[in-house]
Amino acid sequence: MTSDTRAGWRPVTESVGSVRAMKALFLRDLKAAFRQRQDLLNPLLFFIMVVTLFPLGVSPEVSFLQQAGSGILWVAALLSVLLSLDHLFRHDYDDGTLEQLVLQPQPLFLLVLAKVAAHWVLTGLPLVLLAPILGIMVHLDGNSIGVLCLTLLIGTPVLSLIGAIGAALTLGLRSAGVLLSLLIIPLYIPVLIFGTGTVAAAGEGAPVSGYVALMGAFLVLAVTLAPFASAAALRISLSNA
Predict the structure, then answer these.
(1) CA–CA separation, 145 vs 164, rounded Å?
(2) How many beta carbons lie within 10 A of that of residue 186, not counting itself?
(3) Contact assessment for residue 135 and residue 147, using Cβ atoms and an 8 Å cutoff
(4) Most buried of 57, 71, 94, 172, CB within 10 angstroms?
């Protein structure tokens, strides 16, 4: 019995609706993740440890933490998402499920979108929920914490969508983690800049609607383009396997 069968997923042998297939794959990934709790908890523990240890290693001064707190949280969130990306397609590739997904009658980009959505729910959403507590630890005010959570809510799906492209391109390669970092981190920089800039503007009392609109545009572009790029990258990786 394969791991995908235990998780409640069986290859679709007849044509079913795309929405139904996406829902089945989304739920299957959630069930599989909760059976591998170590992979689920590692990014969250990394996020907490980075934010907790940073003041000890740099400066515990309140003024410094208020100024750098949003950047600390955003960088920690970015690295936590990056840490979890290697497992996005890896388990399915190892047990043969990914080949079955490519052969399904449903468009592959929709199935990729379902997997990315599950990845965000398991990784990005918990980071958003932890952000208020860690924001208090770095002495951010209430308004800044609210804006921080909003930027993470918009930005972390972008990180997952862009990261899926890199995860698909490096699938099956040796030292995939290093290559994935080199490919994806430059693409993460605009999201990081606008995410931290939004919180900094909120802390200074400046309008943040323009920043939020730009981050929303990033999200729309990522949802529109990234699944197609990830699907193409998966086909290339599987054809070269």
Answers:
(1) 28
(2) 9
(3) no
(4) 71
pLDDT digits (tens, 9 = 90+) for 204-220: 888 899 999 999 999 99
101 pLDDT band (50/70/90 cuts)? confident
Q: What is the rounded distance in angstroms from the CA atom of residue 4 to the CA atom of residue 151?
A: 34
Q: What is the pLDDT of residue 4?
A: 45
Number of neighbouring beta carbons within 10 Å of residue 12: 18
What tokens does 7 get?
Answer: 């998780």
* Tokens of residue 231, six digits: 């699907």
Distance CA 210, CA 208 (A): 5
Secondary structure of the chain as H, E, C letters: CCHHHHCCCCCCCCCCCHHHHHHHHHHHHHHHHHCCHHHHHHHHHHHHHHHHHHHHHCCCCHHHHHHHHHHHHHHHHHHHHHHHHCCCCHHHHHHCHHHHHHCCCCCHHHHHHHHHHHHHHHHHHHHHHHHHHHHHHCCCCHHHHHHHHHHHHHHHHHHHHHHHHHHHHCCCCCCHHHHHHHHHHHHHHHHHHHHHHHHHHHHCCCCCHHHHHHHHHHHHHHHHHHHHHHHHHHHHHHHCC
Which one, of 145, 39, 139, lies nearest residue 84 by Cα?
39
